[in-house]
Every structure is written in C-alpha cells, then in structure tokens.
Amino acid sequence: RRLVAALSALAACAAGALAVGGSGAQATGRADWVATWAMGPAGAGAGSSALGFTDQSVRMPVRVSVGGEAIRFRLNATFSTQNVTLGHATVAEPETDTPELTDVEATSVRELTFNGGDASVLIPKGGQVLSDPLWMNVPARADLVITPYFPVATGPATWHLTARTQTFVGA
C-alpha cells in the first residue's frame, strides 16, 4: 500500500494528509494510495499560527494508522493570506532512546521532493501541493517526524486547532 499523509500543526502550510502505497502501484503505474493520517485545517489563531514563520523549521510528530512501502504528503495553505514558500521538508523516524520529541534518528532522515524532484515548492494561497512518492517502508502505527522549513515570511499559518501532539519551532 501507498500512504498519503496530511500534516497540520503550527505550520504556515498545514500538512493535511498522509498516504501510503505499495509495490503493485509502482509496477503498474497506478496511483493506489491509502490515506493514513489527516487533519482538519483551520485559520490562524494566537501565537505562532498568527505570526507565521520566517527562516524557521516546524517539527511535527505524527502517528500513521496503516503502513505501506511508499509515502506522500499533501500540504495545504487553505487559510493562508499569501502564497507560502516551502524551502524543503524532511521526514524521519523519531529517536526512541531520548525523551525529546524533537529528536530524530539521523540515519532515517529523508528529503521530500515535489513536482518531479524539486526540494522547494510554492504553495498557492488557498491551495495545496502533493509531494512526490517517497519509497520507504512505513509500518502500521508508526511514528514519523515531519520537518518543513520556511525560508521567507509565511504570513498567518493554516494549522490544526485541536492537535494532540506538540509541535516544535526552530530557527
């Protein structure tokens, strides 16, 4: 199966969905993707979501439901007041030997790409983008850490109002 993940949190663009897929789709060229994580985007609230992000990364832990052999991320700027530039984004496994949710297993860090291999992408105001497939084994109920980087001012952020995990903002 292939997974599509939608992410949301205090990110200028909310990752709204995550999907997974499998080798059958790669062999046949079919787009058989299964949603494994999603969130409901909301307009900016207080704090970081209202201020947006400039030259900052946002680290978002997520737990998928079903697993697969490939993963894609749908990122949205549904409630953004301007286009959002995503400088690059990574996905990684959390470091389980430390208590900090911000720690990732360094050997597991993978770069996301868009539009056939670009590290950066412009997410149109009110729009969304879908990452290229990332072929990696994602077990069912796995924890992942997604880290988008925003090189220029994003304006107020699309985010998830009732997120149940803590998001971390770094310079």
**Helical proportion?**
under 10%
User: What is the 3D form?
Assistant: globular
Structural class: mainly beta
Q: Give the CA-CA distance, first to last residue.
A: 35 Å
Overview of the structural elements:
This protein has 171 residues and is mostly beta strands. Helix content is 6%, strand content 37%. It has 2 helices and 13 strands; from the N terminus they run E-E-H-E-H-E-E-E-E-E-E-E-E-E-E. The protein has helices at residues 23-28, 48-51; strands spanning 2-6, 14-21, 37-38, 56-63, 68-76, 84-86, 88-92, 110-111, 121-123, 128-130, 134-138, 143-150, 168-170. The strands form 3 sheets. Strands 1, 2, 3, 5, 10 and 11 form a 6-stranded mixed β-sheet that branches. A 5-stranded antiparallel β-sheet has the order 8-7-12-4-13, with no helix packed on it. The chain has a two-stranded antiparallel ribbon with strand order 6-9. The longest helix has 6 residues, at 23-28. The chain is globular. The model is unreliable at 5-15 (pLDDT under 50).
